[in-house]
């Protein structure tokens, strides 16, 4: 998941005023909230990051809510596993779009790519689908319960049901490039999250009920664990680079310091079976990884100007036909 969520007009205004660009968060979202999909209660909900106080639902009828991600407009993109579909919601819960597709099978995880396409792990394949619902590519068949997009056009895919390895892919060619053997006690990969701030991947292992952190070459960094944990189904970074994980069987969120020290677990109200977990603060933190983020000329507006903010902080300004 790689995102630098700034509209072209916000960038233009920020440059004109001489201020740093900020994310415009509309509706119910707050820049310090968590979005959580709840598998057993069929909801996608908003919780405050400080005490995980319930703030409302984005959706109350998404059968078997699983993986979630943000798209380039800050919308929440979610997959429903039991009635296979992809649904997109804006900040106040309005349904922006939805589709089903026979290739979805039983969708489990979803990541939005730089071009806006959806990379979906299902229980029968790893596929790429357009926002309109058309299947673009099938990378591999088999059980892919977790997928992650990394810098350098790299993708990982894994299974939560053990196996002991991850498959690696080239996002441009679509070809499988190899595999990563899991070690240090890790068995499966129920979900994966790329952390820009640490340049590492967090992997929730529902077989051992721990979160593993790995470098981009797959080498082990550390494990996040505690006694008495239930089924750990997903993990993400939150405020202060702390690690947050959803405990599906105990209906709670568990938190660790960045270095691995356990802090606490907090019960969730209004959520049965927490699955996907995202902090809204990543909308302002995560840069796009490649030049694929440059919008098509036809979408640059009537002013004929285009502005691209690179991950290095440099700003490119061009006129239609000049770039």
If you had to describe this structure to a student in words, what would you say it looks like?
By secondary structure, the protein is mostly beta strands. The protein has a single domain (8-291), classed as Neuraminidase (6 Propeller). It is 4% helix and 45% strand. The strands form seven sheets. The protein has a four-stranded antiparallel β-sheet, with no helix packed on it. The longest helix is centred in the first third of the chain and has 10 residues, at 8-17. It is globular. Residues 1-27 and 288-323 have low confidence and may be disordered.
List the helices and strands and how they pair.
Elements: H1 8-17, E1 33-38, E2 43-48, E3 54-59, E4 65-70, E5 76-80, E6 85-89, E7 95-99, E8 107-112, E9 118-122, E10 125-129, E11 135-141, E12 146-150, E13 154-158, E14 165-170, E15 176-181, E16 191-195, E17 200-205, E18 210-215, E19 220-224, E20 232-237, E21 243-247, E22 252-256, E23 262-267, E24 274-279, H2 282-285, E25 305-309, E26 315-319
Antiparallel strand pairs: 1-2, 1-24, 2-3, 4-5, 5-6, 6-7, 8-9, 9-10, 10-11, 12-13, 13-14, 14-15, 16-17, 17-18, 18-19, 20-21, 21-22, 22-23, 25-26
